[in-house]
UniProtKB/TrEMBL annotation:
PANTHER family: CDP-DIACYLGLYCEROL--GLYCEROL-3-PHOSPHATE 3-PHOSPHATIDYLTRANSFERASE-RELATED, CDP-DIACYLGLYCEROL--SERINE O-PHOSPHATIDYLTRANSFERASE. Belongs to the CDP-alcohol phosphatidyltransferase class-I family. GO terms for cellular component: endomembrane system; membrane. Keywords: Lipid biosynthesis, Lipid metabolism, Membrane, Phospholipid biosynthesis, Phospholipid metabolism, Transferase, Transmembrane, Transmembrane helix. It comes from Methanococcus maripaludis (Methanococcus deltae). GO terms for biological process: phospholipid biosynthetic process. The lineage of its organism: Archaea, Methanobacteriati, Methanobacteriota, Methanomada group, Methanococci. It is found in: Endomembrane system. Its main location: membrane. This is CDP-diacylglycerol--serine O-phosphatidyltransferase. It is a multi-pass membrane protein. It catalyses: a CDP-1,2-diacyl-sn-glycerol + L-serine = a 1,2-diacyl-sn-glycero-3-phospho-L-serine + CMP + H(+). Gene3D superfamilies: 1.20.120.1760. Its EC number is 2.7.8.8. The chain crosses the membrane at residues 7-28, 78-100, 112-133, 139-156, 168-197.
Length: 204
């Protein structure tokens, strides 16, 4: 008999924390929980490699958690804050792009990401939505366009780096912490630069 308790590892518990925060983002309508999910999504891979507990079960669990935290949660949040037909369309396209991106990732074994990773797409969409709400420069149409662009980038053939250099990770970590206190501008810059990096590198 296939018993979960016999195969679940410490890295899988970290993965489960990812989906918990993703669900909290939906229930509490709070972008910050998506950002926290991104942290735990990165940590589960690190823990799996450090403890030599990389497994097919863990990979499947990670994808399921990702589609909730970085697909459903961002899609729902833009609908919640911009309740309109156009935001529904943007949400659906983003979610479809995320699901296709995760399905492709599951069957590829490459040293770089092909297409914008779904956590990065979720960050890009959520932080720009949060910026538009904070400064009032956007609308449901603008945010929906960002959602559509994110969905397209996820299923594109653009290459993105898997592991940024340590100084960049430190900057990103500090930006995540600042976002917890409402200082979202540094995190927005990080998200935009990462998205643009792949696009401009492709053209070079």
């Amino acid at each position: 008999m296939f018993k979960i308790r016999n195969i679940i590892t410490i890295s899988d518990y970290v993965t489960v924390i990812n989906i918990i925060f993703g669900m909290l983002a939906i229930l509490l309508h709070d972008f910050r929980f998506v950002y926290i999910s991104i942290v735990f999504d990165a940590l589960d891979g690190i823990v799996a490699r450090k403890t030599n507990t990389v497994s097919e079960f863990g990979a499947e669990l990670d994808s399921i958690c990702d589609v909730v935290s970085f697909g459903v949660a961002p899609a729902y949040l833009i609908y919640y804050y911009f309740d309109s037909t156009v935001s529904i369309i943007g949400s659906i396209i983003f979610l479809i792009g995320g699901a296709l991106r995760l399905a492709r990732f599951g069957i590829l074994d490459v040293k770089h990401f092909i297409g914008l990773p779904i956590p990065a797409a979720a960050l890009f969409l959520c932080i720009l939505t949060q910026m538009s709400l904070k400064y009032g420069f956007g609308s449901g149409y603008v945010v929906s366009i960002i959602a559509v662009i994110s969905g397209i980038l996820m299923i594109s053939d653009i290459n993105y780096p898997k592991y940024p250099k340590k100084p960049l990770l430190v900057v990103f970590g500090i930006s995540i912490i600042l976002s917890m206190f409402g200082v979202i501008e540094p995190l927005a810059i990080c998200a935009v630069l990462y998205v643009l990096y792949g696009i401009f590198k492709m053209k070079m």
